[in-house]
Design a protein that fits this description.
Layout lengths: L2 E5 L4 H12 L3 E8 L15 H14 L3 E5 L1 H17 L6 H20 L4 E3 L4 E5 L5 E5 L8 H4 L4 H5 L1 E2 L7 H10 L21 H8 L7 E4 L5 E5 L22 E6 L4 E5 L6 E11 L9 E6 L7 E7 L5 E9 L7 E6 L2 E11 L9
Parallel strand pairs: 1-2, 1-4, 2-3, 4-7, 8-11
Antiparallel strand pairs: 5-6, 6-17, 8-9, 10-11, 12-15, 12-17, 13-14, 13-16, 14-15, 16-17
Helix pairs in contact: 1-2, 1-7, 3-4
Length: 364
């Protein structure tokens, strides 16, 4: 059996991952990352509060496995938090979980695990792995599609996948809780958190006001043709497709269409102005290690909670890829990940750079 380091968070999923691996006979060690939090608010960081650390230690003791805490505060602050702030500064809506997986879990933690002598790292992500006929690793959706996390794992390379285990990916969430109860784990009934771990239980708007105040400056709300309609409270506080909270009186509902960073203006319009048929995706990573040599048809998710949509994908130069949808997509947002799927197989993905064609303006 293998020597495995499990990334433990004090949650039920990573706890069950450790329990399942221990039951299978592996030499299991728990490792928890101590991440950066706002100064003075460390006790409310979702990933490594004293309560979370205490729970992880209790699980490790229950399973009779070693448990260590790794200080990753500086690495996390300099990569994940800076990525988050930089994205909003550029008018994007970043997903910091992507950077955390690439640089922290499969960076800092993986390095510590390998130095510890581990052959694999394991996490509580809902995803699965499979090797194809050539021995290459494929990343598959988790069995529980409602919890599937392949979207945030598309950044992993073949080497990192070869050293990874996802023990909970073969189970639905409720069964994971049943398994936790069967092991009498103290995390069995702990609720899931949907917040960004470093926001200390607060609102991202307050975080940006403190750490990136330039993103929270008021400005004009305008129509596509430049008509002044009102004032926004900061471009970072709005998302593409947003309807509520605009504070603009109009004869019909208005939606956020775009952000004009140069003029600090929020562009809004009617529902029939929403929707794009194509977008450019940058920094594209293909899990197989090879970009397709020709255009391909695949399903594309434009954010973690989005429904997949069929599109044609054409790889370009310098990691840029053109994605053309079969039907207009309303919420294409720069900074979010576009992730490509062939059925249950996650092919890879990249970061949305721009949407390039408004619905109804296809000139062929």
């Amino acid at each position: 059996m293998a020597k495995v380091v499990v990334a433990m968070s004090g949650g039920v999923d990573s706890s069950v991952a450790a329990a399942l691996l221990k039951e299978q006979g592996h030499d299991v060690t728990g490792m928890m990352l101590r991440l950066w939090s706002q100064p003075g608010l460390e006790d409310t960081n979702r990933c490594c509060t004293p309560d979370s650390m205490h729970l992880a230690r209790r699980v490790a003791a229950k399973l009779d496995i070693p448990f260590y805490v790794v200080d990753a505060k500086d690495a996390f602050r300099n990569t994940v938090v800076e990525y988050f702030l930089d994205g909003y500064t550029k008018g994007e809506t970043p997903n910091p979980c992507l950077m955390c997986n690439r640089q922290i879990r499969w960076g800092t933690l993986r390095e510590h695990a390998l130095a510890f002598g581990a052959e694999y790292i394991a996490t509580g992500h809902y995803a699965r792995l499979k090797q194809d006929s050539d021995g290459a690793y494929q990343l598959l959706r988790g069995v529980d599609l409602g919890k599937d996390q392949s979207y945030v794992l598309h950044v992993l390379t073949q080497q990192k996948l070869a050293q990874s285990l996802f023990p909970v990916g073969d189970f639905p969430k409720e069964e994971i809780r049943d398994i936790a109860r069967s092991f009498d784990l103290p995390t069995a009934s702990r609720s899931d958190s949907q917040d960004l771990c470093f926001l200390a239980g607060g609102d991202y708007r307050d975080f940006l006001r403190e750490y990136a105040p330039e993103t929270t400056q008021p400005g004009e709300i305008i129509s596509r043709d430049g008509e002044l309609l009102g004032e926004h409270q900061g471009l970072a506080f709005y998302t593409i497709g947003q309807r509520k909270g605009l504070g603009v009186a109009a004869s019909e509902p208005l939606y956020v269409l775009a952000k004009d960073i140069a003029s600090n203006a929020l562009v809004v319009g009617a529902a029939d102005e929403l929707g794009q048929l194509s977008m450019t995706v940058k920094n594209v990573h293909w899990i197989s290690g090879n970009a397709p040599s020709t255009s391909m048809r695949a399903q594309v998710k434009i954010r973690y909670t989005a429904k997949e949509a069929w599109a044609e994908i054409l790889s370009g130069v310098r990691g840029q890829t053109q994605v053309t949808f079969e039907t207009p997509q309303r919420d294409i947002t720069a900074g979010q990940a576009a992730v490509f799927y062939d059925g249950e197989v996650c092919l890879g993905g990249g970061i949305i750079q721009s949407a390039e064609e408004k619905y109804g303006e296809n000139t062929n």
